[in-house]
Each structure stands twice: as structure tokens, then as C-alpha cells.
């Protein structure tokens, strides 16, 4: 933008006497606050306020910001009235665009500085949000942004009809959505511009956009008002465009292998397919409790019973558990099931999905995640849980006897030095050797698995839906995929024996109910009761209909669930799951 200077909205210029000048009401120059582009922003460094003004207390800052915002809103509401009094509707119905900003930048990339194309064939029409502006004398520059990029509007008074130039100076604000038409010009300073001969306010913005220099930096507010976040930080919208590409590529990859996309119920009579606390709701007409699904697994397996051989579902999953940088109460997975295959097939599928998505989004298989270089070239490492635990801790679980107490003593002797009390308690609380092996793996091995690694052959105690290993007693044919110390996928050779499946699920219910009974309450020194583990308080019931389906016969099959949110985090270098979910669940705003 030509010779642009930056004016920032702050508490020091929020007085009503200054607001009229700030927003171009009745000023001789029409100079208004702007969100600048690159070169001009570099020249504006010296306009920042002293640091002490930027460190006001939170309560004062919040109060001032609210006051500023309401004052701006009041001024803009008056502008809405002014527009309507002039017969102009500030909330339009339609605008016929000929191009988007990026298209114009590409078409006219070879246009020379100072050159203008004024013929009918170079007459264009665009629309978007005004993110920067400067008006003075008989000339105004505006930066218009659509979902493809930005382009400058070059506005001359003599070129605009009637009083449009005055309207532009006094009634158009940062944040307004405009439609504009005109010819193409590249300014002497090299800025491609639409030389405007007419424009229309399509949507009048009532609230001010965040300051360009400070932006929308409040993390909680960025998540809570994602729409403002995307306006203030265009790179945020790029993450969701990449997410859409990833979803599209996943579908393309699995469907190229003959998988059919199906849909299964979100509201379920029994929350099965995983061990997680469900959300419970009540259906008034049916007079019964229903659960938001915690997995799509059991209904997809019903599809295999019904005769489908390759099915998948990309679906929203709901778990009433903790929130962290890796966990959101609702998240997206793809689950897929293939008849007549085993878990080896799903390893190949996982590699193909991740690598194809990486190539689509980043163009290569060497990526960086939070400062760590990740090599996605195939094939990926495949190693058993037993061997990985032995490699990291020195404990060989294959040599341990069946005595659980002795096994715990061996583990604590090997790794107990420096172990925090929480991890030590978790190890001591393990009810079986299988649980102990998994606990040691999660504490010591999992964080070290930075490069893509398939962890194979999990204990049967923690894998109630997986087929017993065909060579190793006490283990199952199951793998989990880890990248950057995070689980990305979980897969089995699926259990198809209905009697074995019933026995395992019943044992899972027994173990949960035992844990639930222990967690209901403990008596402290005062005789009062207090909960010690809320996450164990939910009820678990058998999905009898699923067990009935298995008794009709399900073919040998493999299945896999892959976390799409975590995959997007990996491929967009996003630190938190909330960065890749457009509208994450948050605490109630105070």
C-alpha cells in the first residue's frame, strides 16, 4: 500500500473527541486506523506506545477495551443509519465477482510498475473484507482480503460517481465487506491494484478488528472467537484449509482400495468400542438414557457381519474426560475394517494414509514438528512392546514369573530412582502383568518414540477386542502407531469368537465396577466421604446386540482407528489440538 502509516487503537486514543478523527468522521484528511501490509508495517515501528502503557492491569485493560469497543460500535451504528438515510442498504444480498484476489495477482504478475490496463477486457469485479485503508485529499488506498489473498483498491475522487468518494472516506471502516469493480493498474511502487470506478458496502462491520501489531494474542479468546482469530491471523485459516485437504486425501486413499464410507449412530444404547467415560443424555419420547458414542467400532463390525467387506467412517467421537493440548472432549477419527485381512494389512494402510497426506499438504516426507525433524519415508520401524520396554528400561518381561508382586519389585528396582509418586502409585496399582507392562511402556517408552514406530503385540488384559496372538500366549495381534511420542493409530486383528468376546467384555465390566466401587468414596479422618476418582464413576454395560451379531458370524478381519486431529497437528506443526479444531470446547468464560 502506497506510503501507508499505521494508526493503532489503544486506550490513549479512545476518547470520544479522538474517535471521530480515528474513524474518519468529519476530518479533512480522512486518515483512519489501518491494518498495514508488509513494507509499511516495517516503517511503523516507532509509532508503538511505551511499554509501560502496554502493561496495564488486566482489569483496567479489559474495562478500557470494552469501553473502546462500545464507543466504536455506537459510531458505526450511526453510520448504518446514515447509509440507510441515503437510500443505501448496508447489508447487501449479492455481488457478482469476476475474480478472486489471488487470481488477479497471478494473471497480472508481469504487469510493469506504473502500467494501467483500462480496456473493457481488463475490467474486473471483486469482493472481500477491508483490512487496511488510507484516505487523503482526492485519493484513497484500501486493502481488500478475500479467502485467497489480498489486493489493493486504488480510489480516485474524479473516477467515482456522485458522492461515493465522500462515502468511502467517511462511512467505510476497517472490517467492512465491500464489492468493487474497475480496471487493473500497477502503481509506481509495484502494488497491483484495482482502479475502482464503483463500489458497494455489502456488510457494515460494527465491531473493530484487533490491533495489527498486538493482533488477537489472548489464547483463550482466539479459541473462543475463532472467527475473529481467522480475520486477525490469516495463517490460522490456512490450518483449516490444510485440514480439509487431509480429510479429502484420507478419503481418496481408502476409497482407492475399495473401502465404502458408511454412517453409524452417534446416540447409542451402550457406550462400547473403547474404555472411556461417555456423555449421557435422556431421550424423552423413548424414556431412556442414551450415550454419545465413544467409538464407531462396534457398529462398523456389525456392517461386516451384514456382508460388507471393506467399510470406513470418518466421524465425531465424544468422551467426557479431561482437556489438554492432546485431548478435546469431541474429536474426529477414521475407523476402517477389512474382512479377510490381519493387523499387518493395517500397518501398510496407516503408512499410506499418513505419507499421502504429508505429500498433499507439505510436498515432501521430511517434516518438522515443534523443532524436531520427522522422517516419514517408508517403511517405518516395527517393534514389539516387550522389546521396546527392555530396550529403554532393561526389564525383560518375558523372563518375569507370574508373581505380580515380584514383577513390580523388579520394575521398581530397575526404574524407581527418580520416579515421581504418581507414576510409582500407578505401577503399584496395576492389577496384572499385562497392565504392568503397559504402564511401564507408557511412562518410559512412549515419550521417546519420536520417529514413526509401530508398537506390536499388546497384552490381552488391555486389548479386549483384539484377537489372541497366534504364536505368543497372553498377547494379542494389536499395534499402535506413535509419532513424536503420541499415539496416532490403534489397530487389531479383530476378535471374531463370540464366546471369547463375551467373556472378555464381561471381565472388563467386572474390573471397571470393582474400580468404581473402590472409587465411590473413602473415609477421611473426620468421617466424611470424598470422591477419589471421578473418572471411574460412570457405568459400563455390555452391548448385547453386538455380541448377538458376532454369533451370526463375522469374517476374519483387521480394523484400525486413526486420530485425524492429531494427524493434522503433526502435518501443520500445531502444538495443541485446539489449534486444529475450529471451535474447541472451552471452560465457561468468566
Automatic annotation (TrEMBL):
<dbReference type="InterPro" id="IPR002313">
    <property type="entry name" value="Lys-tRNA-ligase_II"/>
</dbReference>
<dbReference type="GO" id="GO:0005829">
    <property type="term" value="C:cytosol"/>
</dbReference>
<feature type="region of interest" description="Disordered">
    <location>
        <begin position="44"/>
        <end position="69"/>
    </location>
</feature>
<keyword id="KW-0030">Aminoacyl-tRNA synthetase</keyword>
<dbReference type="GO" id="GO:0005524">
    <property type="term" value="F:ATP binding"/>
</dbReference>
<keyword id="KW-0067">ATP-binding</keyword>
<dbReference type="GO" id="GO:0005739">
    <property type="term" value="C:mitochondrion"/>
</dbReference>
<dbReference type="InterPro" id="IPR004364">
    <property type="entry name" value="Aa-tRNA-synt_II"/>
</dbReference>
<dbReference type="InterPro" id="IPR044136">
    <property type="entry name" value="Lys-tRNA-ligase_II_N"/>
</dbReference>
<dbReference type="GO" id="GO:0000049">
    <property type="term" value="F:tRNA binding"/>
</dbReference>
<dbReference type="Pfam" id="PF01336">
    <property type="entry name" value="tRNA_anti-codon"/>
</dbReference>
<dbReference type="InterPro" id="IPR012340">
    <property type="entry name" value="NA-bd_OB-fold"/>
</dbReference>
<dbReference type="InterPro" id="IPR018149">
    <property type="entry name" value="Lys-tRNA-synth_II_C"/>
</dbReference>
<keyword id="KW-0479">Metal-binding</keyword>
<feature type="domain" description="Aminoacyl-transfer RNA synthetases class-II family profile">
    <location>
        <begin position="240"/>
        <end position="584"/>
    </location>
</feature>
<dbReference type="InterPro" id="IPR006195">
    <property type="entry name" value="aa-tRNA-synth_II"/>
</dbReference>
<keyword id="KW-0648">Protein biosynthesis</keyword>
<dbReference type="GO" id="GO:0006430">
    <property type="term" value="P:lysyl-tRNA aminoacylation"/>
</dbReference>
<dbReference type="InterPro" id="IPR004365">
    <property type="entry name" value="NA-bd_OB_tRNA"/>
</dbReference>
<dbReference type="GO" id="GO:0004824">
    <property type="term" value="F:lysine-tRNA ligase activity"/>
</dbReference>
<dbReference type="Pfam" id="PF00152">
    <property type="entry name" value="tRNA-synt_2"/>
</dbReference>
<feature type="compositionally biased region" description="Low complexity">
    <location>
        <begin position="57"/>
        <end position="66"/>
    </location>
</feature>
<dbReference type="InterPro" id="IPR045864">
    <property type="entry name" value="aa-tRNA-synth_II/BPL/LPL"/>
</dbReference>
<protein>
    <recommendedName>
        <fullName>Lysine--tRNA ligase</fullName>
        <ecNumber>6.1.1.6</ecNumber>
    </recommendedName>
</protein>
<keyword id="KW-0547">Nucleotide-binding</keyword>
<comment type="similarity">
    <text>Belongs to the class-II aminoacyl-tRNA synthetase family.</text>
</comment>
<dbReference type="GO" id="GO:0046872">
    <property type="term" value="F:metal ion binding"/>
</dbReference>
<keyword id="KW-0436">Ligase</keyword>
Amino acid at each position: 500500500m502506497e506510503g501507508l502509516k499505521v494508526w493503532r487503537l489503544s486506550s490513549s486514543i479512545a476518547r470520544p473527541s479522538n474517535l471521530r478523527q480515528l474513524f474518519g468522521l468529519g476530518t479533512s484528511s480522512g486518515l483512519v486506523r489501518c491494518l498495514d501490509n508488509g513494507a509499511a508495517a516495517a516503517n511503523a515501528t516507532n509509532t508503538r506506545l511505551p511499554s509501560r502503557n502496554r502493561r496495564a492491569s488486566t482489569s483496567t485493560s479489559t474495562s478500557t477495551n470494552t469501553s473502546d469497543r462500545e464507543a466504536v460500535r455506537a459510531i458505526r451504528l450511526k453510520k448504518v443509519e446514515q447509509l440507510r438515510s441515503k437510500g443505501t442498504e448496508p447489508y447487501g444480498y449479492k455481488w457478482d465477482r469476476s475474480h478472486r484476489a489471488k487470481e488477479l495477482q497471478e494473471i497480472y504478475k508481469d504487469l510493469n510498475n506504473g502500467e494501467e490496463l483500462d480496456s473493457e477486457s481488463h475490467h474486473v469485479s471483486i469482493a472481500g473484507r477491508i483490512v487496511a485503508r488510507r484516505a487523503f485529499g482526492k485519493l484513497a488506498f484500501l486493502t481488500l482480503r478475500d479467502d485467497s489473498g489480498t489486493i489493493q483498491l486504488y480510489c480516485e475522487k474524479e473516477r467515482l460517481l456522485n458522492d461515493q468518494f465522500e462515502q468511502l472516506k467517511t462511512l467505510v471502516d476497517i472490517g467492512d465487506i465491500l464489492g468493487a469493480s474497475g480496471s487493473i493498474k500497477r502503481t509506481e511502487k509495484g502494488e497491483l491494484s484495482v482502479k475502482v470506478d464503483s463500489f458497494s458496502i455489502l456488510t457494515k462491520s460494527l465491531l473493530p478488528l484487533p490491533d495489527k501489531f498486538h493482533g488477537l494474542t489472548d489464547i483463550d479468546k482466539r479459541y473462543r472467537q475463532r472467527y475473529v482469530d481467522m480475520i486477525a491471523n490469516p495463517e490460522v485459516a490456512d490450518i483449516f484449509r490444510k485440514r480439509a485437504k487431509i480429510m479429502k486425501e484420507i478419503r481418496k486413499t481408502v476409497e482407492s482400495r475399495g473401502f465404502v464410507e458408511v454412517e453409524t449412530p452417534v446416540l447409542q444404547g451402550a457406550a462400547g468400542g473403547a474404555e472411556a467415560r461417555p456423555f449421557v443424555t435422556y431421550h424423552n419420547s423413548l424414556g431412556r438414557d442414551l450415550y454419545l458414542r465413544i467409538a464407531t467400532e462396534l457398529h462398523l463390525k456389525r456392517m461386516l457381519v451384514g456382508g460388507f467387506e471393506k467399510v470406513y467412517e470418518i466421524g465425531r467421537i465424544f468422551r467426557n474426560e479431561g482437556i489438554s493440548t492432546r485431548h478435546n472432549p469431541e474429536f474426529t477419527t477414521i475407523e476402517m475394517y477389512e474382512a479377510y485381512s490381519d493387523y499387518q494389512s493395517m500397518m501398510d494402510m496407516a503408512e499410506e494414509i499418513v505419507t499421502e497426506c504429508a505429500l498433499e499438504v507439505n510436498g515432501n516426507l521430511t517434516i518438522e514438528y515443534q523443532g524436531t525433524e520427522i522422517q516419514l519415508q517408508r517403511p517405518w520401524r516395527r517393534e514389539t512392546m516387550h522389546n521396546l520396554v527392555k530396550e529403554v528400561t532393561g526389564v525383560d518381561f518375558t523372563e518375569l514369573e507370574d508373581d505380580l508382586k515380584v514383577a513390580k519389585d523388579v520394575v521398581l528396582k530397575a526404574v524407581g530412582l527418580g520416579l515421581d509418586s504418581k507414576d510409582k502409585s500407578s505401577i503399584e496399582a496395576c492389577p496384572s502383568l499385562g497392565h504392568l507392562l503397559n504402564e511401564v511402556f507408557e511412562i518410559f517408552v512412549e515419550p521417546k518414540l519420536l520417529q514413526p514406530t509401530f508398537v506390536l503385540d499388546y497384552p490381552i488384559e488391555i486389548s479386549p477386542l483384539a484377537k489372541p496372538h497366534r504364536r505368543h500366549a497372553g498377547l494379542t495381534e494389536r499395534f499402535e502407531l506413535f509419532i513424536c511420542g503420541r499415539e496416532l493409530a490403534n489397530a487389531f486383528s479383530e476378535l471374531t469368537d463370540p464366546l471369547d468376546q463375551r467373556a472378555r467384555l464381561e471381565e472388563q465390566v467386572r474390573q471397571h465396577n470393582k474400580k468404581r466401587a473402590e472409587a465411590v468414596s473413602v473415609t477421611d479422618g473426620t468421617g466424611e466421604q470424598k470422591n477419589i476418582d471421578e473418572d471411574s464413576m460412570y457405568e459400563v454395560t455390555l452391548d448385547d446386540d453386538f455380541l448377538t451379531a458376532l454369533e451370526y458370524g463375522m469374517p476374519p478381519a483387521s480394523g484400525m482407528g486413526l486420530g485425524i486431529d492429531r494427524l493434522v497437528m503433526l502435518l501443520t506443526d500445531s502444538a495443541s489440538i485446539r489449534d486444529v479444531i475450529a471451535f474447541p470446547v472451552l471452560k465457561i468464560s468468566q
